[in-house]
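Morning!

This is the sequence you dropped in the shared folder:
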Amino acid sequence: MKSLFYIRGILRNRLTYCNQVMAINLLERACLGGASEQSLKELALEAKNWTQWREAMEEYLEGCE
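The structure's back. Tokens below.
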């Protein structure tokens, strides 16, 4: 869980807007779905804005279902 909060911190620091509650929920679901912490971190570092990151996470989660 500590690493998920770290990744959320990356988002908070890089993006002008970050829904913190939604971010941690998406990260937790992705982690439980089998995503590696490193891939989640890379996605956070590559995102240009909140919407791009959220859509990428939702797309990943749809693939896990």
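Headline: Residues 37 and 53 are 15 Å apart (CA to CA).

More detail when I'm at my desk.
O.
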